[in-house]
Amino acid sequence: MVEADHEDGGYDRNKELKLLDETKAGVKGLVDAGLTKLPKIFVHDNHKVNVSSPSSSSSATNVSIPVIDLGSLHEEANSRHEIVQKVKDAGEKWGFFQVVNHEIPESVLDEMLDGVRKFHEQDAEMKREFYSRDITKRVFYNTNFNFSTSEVNWRDTLYCLLAPGPLDPHQLPSICRDVIIEYLNHLKKLALTLLELLSEALGLEGNYLKDIDCAEGIFMVGNYYPPCPQPELTWGLSSHTDLGFVTILLQDQVGGLQVFHENQWFDITPFPGAFIVNLGDMMQLITNDKFMSAKHRVVAQKVGPRVSVSCSLRQHVQNECGRMYGPIKELVTKENPPIYKEMKMSDLVKLVYTTKLDYDVSSPLKHFRL
Ligand code: OGA
Ligand code: NI
């Protein structure tokens, strides 16, 4: 592979990508091979942004995304009202919040992170059979799902479409099968609670978002960020928004996740036992920009591996994505007319998977504006 400091002569990006793909061992395979310089495909043009990350300099690090305690949800009407108010604020101002006291045992969270780590750290031969770029598969793994259209990041990923439709557990990798199933059972309940709170925060009936099928699809992503020898040259995950309605993210204690808020990047410091919840493009679209889908990214680091598990409430490219979505009728008025046209979620999924998107310049939602 061509290293970072080589001359451009003879560098063929597509060939390099193909070579990496053919190893079926991802970034983890490069690290295992003892690589000390980044292959050129990983070096980003805008990498200098990484060096001046706010985490080291500004006072911004003292501000954290809102923390919402779900523990008092069922105690009295008053506390529910307060929680809904906090969700509304967070949805409008950050598009991000953390939830604590969510009733999912910490042991399940630890086992889930451990399961994803074990998947990526298992024998390369076992992992190879899951390596694919066929996005119609329900379960597969690869490095950088969009590497032909986007910059290449220092990360490998396991993808599992857990819902809708019956999932044959045997499709899941045996090394993390049981824990994924257990995690999913808990997560579905949390997802419904969050959709209820979000519905109420929008001034709608509690079951509104569930009834328009926002929880029908669950797309799980198990990210593995190996230690990076030259973290200043690349990203773990470059700036993006999530495309679904809501993402429920679990991160380990390594850190590196940042959110863009009021023109600055903020660290999302790991908080044991907490979930990070962020709203995606579909939520921004159906709320007619009332709730925001915030940009976020993960820095590459010398320390690692870092593991995260994100579950996005969204459908995928399979043909279940028939429903049309547009700004919710109850939320639009003469003064606040619809900004977006009616669309299918699969249109957005296809766009994100096939188009070169630069999130620093615009959001994929611009393609759906009226
Ligand atoms: C994602 C994502 C953040 C993380 O998978 O979309 O933003 O912490 N992950 O890995
Ligand atoms: Ni994301």
TrEMBL record:
Its cofactor is Fe cation. InterPro entries: DIOX_N, IPNS-like_FE2OG_OXY, IPNS-like_sf, Oxoglu/Fe-dep_dioxygenase_dom. GO terms for molecular function: dioxygenase activity; metal ion binding. It holds the Pfam family DIOX_N. Keywords: Iron, Metal-binding, Oxidoreductase. Gene3D superfamilies: B-lactam Antibiotic, Isopenicillin N Synthase, Chain (2.60.120.330). It comes from the Eukaryota. PROSITE patterns: FE2OG_OXY. PANTHER family: 1-AMINOCYCLOPROPANE-1-CARBOXYLATE OXIDASE HOMOLOG 1-LIKE (PTHR10209:SF884), OXIDOREDUCTASE, 2OG-FE II OXYGENASE FAMILY PROTEIN (PTHR10209). This is Fe2OG dioxygenase domain-containing protein. It comes from Arachis hypogaea (Peanut). The lineage of its organism: Eukaryota, Viridiplantae, Streptophyta, Embryophyta, Tracheophyta.
